[in-house]
Amino acid sequence: MGRSRTQQKKSAPPASASAVASSSPSISSLLTKAQDLIVQCDYPLARKFIERVLGRVDGTIPEKSQAREMMGVVLLEMGDVDAAREMFLTLLPPHSDAP
User: Fold this and answer.
1) Annotated region Disordered: where (predicted)?
2) CA distance 42 to 78
3) Closest Cα partner for 30 from 8, 13, 52?
4) What are the pLDDT digits (tens) for 44-67?
5) What fold characterizes domain 27-90?
6) Which residue intervals of the chain are DSSP H helices?
């Protein structure tokens, strides 16, 4: 009996940058997943999702405020009170009488 030849899988061509960007999850789905992880008390993983959102959003859109609030909660739950305080303070507008 002769040897049977094993079949090799052909690798797919590398995806282009535009194809990767279009397949990335939406900001709202990332926030929903982060919220689910917070409810499950998986704060380190929730933090990763929130950091991904904060890296993608621009300006003062509502999702950015929501992500910062969630990050404050995650930081607080992880015991980083000072960082959580700073994150929550970014949500407040500056006061005109503040030094």
Assistant:
1) 1-25
2) 10
3) 52
4) 999 999 999 999 877 668 889 999
5) 1.25.40
6) 17-22, 27-39, 43-56, 62-77, 81-89
Residue 74 contacts residue 48 (beta carbons within 8 Å): no
What is the reported pLDDT for 72?
97
Q: Say which residues have a Cβ less than 8 Å from residue 84's Cβ, sequence separation at least 6.
A: 72, 73, 75, 76
Query: What is the structure's pLDDT at 71?
Result: 96
**Cα 73 to Cα 71: distance, rounded to the nearest angstrom:** 5
Instruction: Compute the CA torsion angle 28, 65, 77, 42 (nearest 10 deg).
Output: 10
Do the beta carbons of residue 43 and residue 34 sit within 8 Å?
no
Residue-wise pLDDT for 70-82, tens only, equals 999 999 999 999 9
